[in-house]
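Posting this for the archive.
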Amino acid sequence: MSILTFDEVSYQHILHKITGEFREGVITTLVGPSGAGKSTTLKHINGLISPDRGEICFRGEPLEQMNLLDVRKRIGMAFQSAPMIPGTVYDNINLPKSIFGESLPREEAERLLQQ
């Protein structure tokens, strides 16, 4: 089953009529040289940028009609270079929770660090 579909997505001079799907339960890899649009494609998936043309759907619903906070709770994104934010190690581990007004219990943070 398709979890994410691209239908003729274009963005500036980087993406040109990209069409395809990401299937649930399948690992998909984007491969290409520097400047090919891999990071731009990922930014579209998470709603960080919007296409100039075309449509992206998550579970059949157009991404542009969805609440971006809900989308970001369900679609994670890990950048190749993960900069530390100012503060403690706990502050960095707690960052995803803090974005949504929650907090990670310290015991859970310690357990994660042990893993």
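DSSP finds four helices and four strands in the chain. Helices lie at 38-45, 68-74, 89-99, 106-114.
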